[in-house]
């Protein structure tokens, strides 16, 4: 098991160019199947989940070339329609291949996704929406066999604005017969990115970023050039690290609207921000303050992916903060680990109470998931002394060489494999 060795206590500051977004890149990779052509993607994040998704495309028969941050993907020929159970369990976002394969081949087989470290994560909304559009689904030996001679547009009302279900429906509807409207659709920037990509390939889609998205199915899509937008969660992670360690940070390549709720939360702790063109500058106060509450929720609510990182920051803020996690039912496992570093956190069901402490100390801790692991890493950067953070394999799924990035910004982090 890989781990990070961190010597804390140094400010994290300077200039950092934010990389391409994991959660935008993964659905776009699935969407390349619909183009049945050559697609060029720029600003790709060089993270484990991106490589795993490229491998899925290769397994299906696509040609993939990656040079630097540019991926050239040729999806003209595929010879498989199955996403195997071990793949889905390794990386949940592979369920998005279901919509893309069905949209293209009218059939697909998906292994059972199962739960994961942050919750049960069922896919009922995906499957029931597919059924409404004419897809027949049979579950046999833990595999979902899906087929549809005709995929028909439909008015779909989501009972929850699921990001993945909205993406899967978009993929299925892009080449369906007739018009599909998704009501109560997810509004995350990653949905907007996927729609922009599909539109660049010739899809007819309107209303992305609002609760109603309309898709007019087209017969054929084509290849496109597309640049993956910045990762708002990576940006937020670095902001929290600097705020906790007292460093001044300039983030390059960010879009203000997409990161507003995270900036809003940090402003409440006393951090000052200035935004010019595509650069976001932040200066933390001498003493971070707390005494407010945060509730995670679908966009434009506070992002659940930032919850562990902001919790880490709040362990050092004067006062008390309550965080309610409404999106995932088991996303507080980092709290117990933060307490091993001296934090004062009490978790009851889906609410955490964080009371600021005078300082954190180094410890041996375990990251159980991607954002939880990153939260421990930034806590270790702010702590006095040495820390060992196990579970680097989760962090690597979504952060590109985070140890190098923090080291360049003044931290002392080493990845031990
Ligand atoms: N849900 C259902 N049924 C469904 C679908 C979702 O009950 O059919 C529930 C989930 O169990 C969860 C909630 O709805 O409790 C939200 O799930 P959603 O579908 O919105 O999330 P997702 O598509 O599975 C994406 C990101 C997550 C991010 C969430 C919320 C990707 C690859 N993943 O997951 O990212 O937390 O949206 O914003 O885009 C991460 O990057 O660390 C991460 C977990």
Question: What does this molecule look like?
Answer:
With 417 residues, the protein is an alpha/beta fold. Helices cover 34% and strands 25% of the residues. A four-stranded mixed β-sheet has the order 22-23-1-24. Helix 8 packs parallel to helix 12 (370-382). The radius of gyration is 21 Å and the shape is globular. Uridine-diphosphate-2(N-acetylglucosaminyl) butyric acid (EPU) binds at residues 22-23, 26, 93, 119-126, 160, 162-165, 190, 304-305, 327-328, 370-371, 398.
Helix share bin: 25-40%
Strand content: 25-35%
End-to-end Cα distance, whole Å, is 7 Å
Uncertain runs are: none
Oligomer: single chain
Number of strands: 24
Give the CA-based shape.
Answer: globular
The largest sheet, given as strand count, sense and whether it forms a barrel, is: 4 strands, mixed
The number of helical elements comes to: 14
Mean pLDDT: 96
Q: What structural class is derived from the secondary structure elements?
A: alpha/beta
* Rounded radius of gyration (Å): 21 Å
- How do the strands of the widest beta sheet line up side by side? 22-23-1-24
Ligand types:
uridine-diphosphate-2(N-acetylglucosaminyl) butyric acid
What is the strand and helix layout of this fold?
Layout: E1 3-7, E2 14-17, H1 22-35, E3 38-42, H2 48-60, E4 63-67, E5 70-74, E6 82-83, H3 85-90, H4 96-105, E7 107-111, H5 124-132, E8 136-140, E9 143-147, E10 155-157, H6 163-173, E11 179-183, H7 189-200, E12 204-206, E13 212-216, E14 225-227, H8 232-245, E15 249-252, H9 260-268, E16 272-276, E17 279-283, E18 292-295, H10 307-314, E19 320-324, H11 333-340, E20 344-348, E21 351-355, E22 364-366, H12 370-382, E23 386-390, H13 392-398, H14 402-408, E24 413-416
Parallel strand pairs: 2-15, 3-14, 6-7, 10-11, 18-19, 22-23
Antiparallel strand pairs: 1-23, 1-24, 3-5, 4-5, 7-9, 8-9, 11-13, 12-13, 15-17, 16-17, 19-21, 20-21
The chain binds uridine-diphosphate-2(N-acetylglucosaminyl) butyric acid.
Uridine-diphosphate-2(N-acetylglucosaminyl) butyric acid (EPU) is lined by residues 22-23, 26, 93, 119-126, 160, 162-165, 190, 304-305, 327-328, 370-371, 398.
């Amino acid at each position: 098991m890989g781990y990070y060795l961190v010597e804390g206590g140094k400010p994290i500051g300077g200039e950092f160019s934010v990389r391409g977004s994991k959660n935008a890149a993964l659905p776009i990779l699935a969407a390349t199947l619909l183009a049945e052509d050559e697609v060029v993607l720029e600003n790709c994040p060089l993270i484990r989940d991106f490589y795993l998704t490229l491998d899925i495309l290769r397994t299906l028969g696509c040609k993939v070339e990656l040079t630097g941050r540019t991926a050239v993907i040729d999806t003209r020929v595929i010879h498989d329609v199955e996403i195997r159970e071990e793949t889905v369990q390794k990386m949940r976002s592979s369920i998005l291949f279901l919509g893309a394969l069905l949209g293209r081949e009218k059939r697909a087989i998906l292994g059972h996704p199962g739960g994961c470290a942050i919750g049960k994560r069922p896919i009922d909304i995906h499957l029931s929406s597919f059924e409404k559009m004419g897809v027949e689904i049979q579950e046999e030996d833990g595999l979902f066999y899906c087929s549809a001679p005709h995929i028909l547009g439909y008015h779909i009302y989501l009972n929850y604005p699921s990001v993945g279900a909205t993406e899967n429906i978009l993929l299925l509807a892009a080449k369906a017969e007739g018009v599909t409207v998704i009501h109560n659709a997810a509004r995350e920037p990653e949905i907007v990115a996927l729609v922009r990509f599909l539109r660049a390939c010739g899809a007819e889609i309107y209303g992305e970023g609002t609760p109603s998205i309309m898709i007019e199915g087209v017969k054929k899509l084509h290849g496109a050039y597309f640049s993956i937008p910045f990762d708002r969660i990576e940006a937020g992670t670095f902001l929290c690290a600097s705020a906790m360690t007292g460093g001044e940070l300039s983030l390059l390549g960010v879009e203000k609207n997409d990161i507003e709720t995270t900036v809003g939360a940090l402003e409440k702790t006393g951090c000052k921000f200035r935004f010019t063109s595509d650069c976001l500058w932040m200066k933390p106060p001498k003493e971070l303050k707390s005494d407010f509450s945060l509730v995670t929720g679908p966009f434009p609510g506070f992002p659940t992916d930032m919850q562990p990182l902001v919790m880490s920051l709040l362990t050092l803020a004067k006062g008390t903060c309550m965080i309610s996690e409404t999106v995932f039912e088991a996303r507080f496992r980092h709290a117990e680990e933060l307490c091993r570093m001296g934090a004062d956190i009490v978790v009851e069901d889906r609410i955490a109470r964080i009371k600021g402490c005078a300082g954190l100390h180094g410890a041996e801790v375990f990251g159980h998931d991607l954002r939880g692991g990153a939260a421990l890493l930034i806590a270790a950067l702010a702590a006095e002394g040495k820390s060992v953070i196990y579970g680097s394999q989760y962090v690597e799924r979504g952060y590109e060489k985070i140890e190098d990035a923090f080291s360049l910004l003044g931290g002392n982090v080493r990845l031990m494999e």
